[in-house]
Amino acid sequence: MTEPRDVVERQLAAYNSHDIDAFVATYAEDVRVQRADGGLLRGRTALRERYAGQFAEGRCRAEIVGRLTEGDWVVDREIAHGLADEPVRVLVAYRVRDGLIDRVDFLG
Question: Whole-prediction pTM value?
């Protein structure tokens, strides 16, 4: 059985190396991503479309400054670099089921 934190860590490594295929592969086909701005992404295709430009430009990187885990959930306190002029601090909750991330909630 794959531990949720290991799946989220693989997702983070793919994000930081701008490997869109490896990044998307850590998500369930029907993943639901609730963005902090109220937007909602559904499915791997939408996820790929949302992140492909950032990855191609090589401008994104996330630094984990805190992590909590409980059951299927991993909550990261992150500093996101390359998305704005200044680093952005966010909380991100990931739910992992059957070895894939099936839900993501950006909390700030």
Answer: 0.93
67-98 exposure pattern, b = at least 16 Cβ within 10 A, e = fewer: eeeeeebbbbbbebeeeeeeeeebebebbbee
Q: What span, in angstroms and rounded, lies between the C-alpha atoms of 61 and 32?
A: 21
pLDDT tens digit sequence for 3-19: 999 999 999 999 999 99
- Please say whether the beta carbons of 24 and 86 come within 8 A: no
The residues, ordered by sequence, that sit 6+ positions from 29 with a Cβ below 8 Å of its Cβ are 43, 44
Answer yes or no: is pLDDT of 1 > 70.
no
Strand 73-81 and strand 61-70: the pairing is: antiparallel
